[in-house]
Amino acid sequence: MARRSLVQTTKAAAAAVIAWIVATSVLELPQPFLAPYAAVFLVQATVYRSLRGWAQQVGAVSVGVLLAAAAGQFIPSVTVALGLVVFTGLLIGSWRGFGESGVWVGITGMLLISYGNATEPVLLADRLLETALGAAIGAVLNAVILPPLHGERLRTATSRLASAIADVLEKTAALVRGGEAADLLHERMRDVRSLVAEAEEAIGWTQESRYLNLRGRRETREEPLANLVSLWPPLAQLIDAVSEAARSEQPFRHPGEYARGVVGDLLEALAEVARSGDPDKLDRCRKLVEEIDHLLVTPTDEVTTSIGLGAMALPARRLVQRLGAD
């Protein structure tokens, strides 16, 4: 992530310098301060955002220029024109189509009115040209030179979520066997839920960074992380079932010692698969699921516990299925 930040910062600085040189030395625009300003803000976190931002920024600045021109022609008082242009510009800029560039409508109008450029068509055209130029340079530079990818964010999220899920499964196995506090387990589950949200955000960034990206084929695949995210619903159901059985004073809800041992073995095996990411290790998990199914249908001294065991069996089976889906 530090490397990506350094690359993006370097590109932003280069874009500002290039925009300034082109605007001053090539086009000879007077006071082209908007060119480097726009260039910096268009070196964004993804290529898609840079290209979308270019269209939004040029559109917002164009509306701001038109507002300033209209105010300069029909409102003689600079103070009144300034207030009306800022108010109207910010109101128009709140349209979601402008995105984060919407504020440029009011700001552009304010700058042109305050600098006294609103009545000079040539200067108005210059402001629009330099903004479009700077934004284009920033967007193109971001798209062509080491366009940003977010594989590192994805890999970090995958590692953290896999480790947290494995830890929770191991703690759940201890609770099933009677050696762990349910309250502590629920605290760990809140951590997992937070990591799931981070993982979903990382997946979104990865998918967006691949779009229109010349290096998109080199991006890390998000399927392994998406598969881990899909474990959240059955994992939460399993924790609820185990916690409810552990708190219950009714013997028919809490599985007997042997059944709890099988469930504990299954959860520890699932933890190993989640941590290693190796679906080939699921064979033992599948055998343990079959053993749980056998306990549910075979009359034994412990089958009075079938309600609690059945509540654990379904989410445990789903965990096995989803870990093997990659």
Structure notes:
- Helix 8 packs antiparallel against helix 9 (223-229).
- The chain folds into 2 domains: 2-144, no CATH class; 151-323, Up-down Bundle (Four Helix Bundle (Hemerythrin (Met), subunit A)).
- It is elongated.
- By secondary structure, it is mainly α.
- The chain has 13 helices and no strands.
Structural key phrases:
326 residues; mainly alpha; Four Helix Bundle (Hemerythrin (Met), subunit A); 75% helix
Compact description:
The protein has 326 residues and is mostly helical.
Task: Describe the protein's topology.
Blueprint: H1 2-26, H2 34-41, H3 47-74, H4 78-93, H5 103-114, H6 121-144, H7 151-176, H8 182-210, H9 223-229, H10 232-247, H11 257-276, H12 282-297, H13 306-323
Helix pairs in contact: 1-2, 1-6, 2-6, 3-4, 3-5, 3-6, 4-5, 7-8, 7-9, 7-10, 7-11, 8-9, 8-10, 10-13, 11-12, 11-13, 12-13
Pfam family, one: ArAE_1
Organism: Amycolatopsis umgeniensis
Subcellular location: Cell membrane
The SS-based structural class is mainly alpha
**Biggest sheet features:** none
CATH topology of the largest domain: Four Helix Bundle (Hemerythrin (Met), subunit A)
Any idea what the shape is?
A: elongated
Q: Tell me the CATH architecture of the largest domain.
A: Up-down Bundle
CATH class of the largest domain: Mainly Alpha
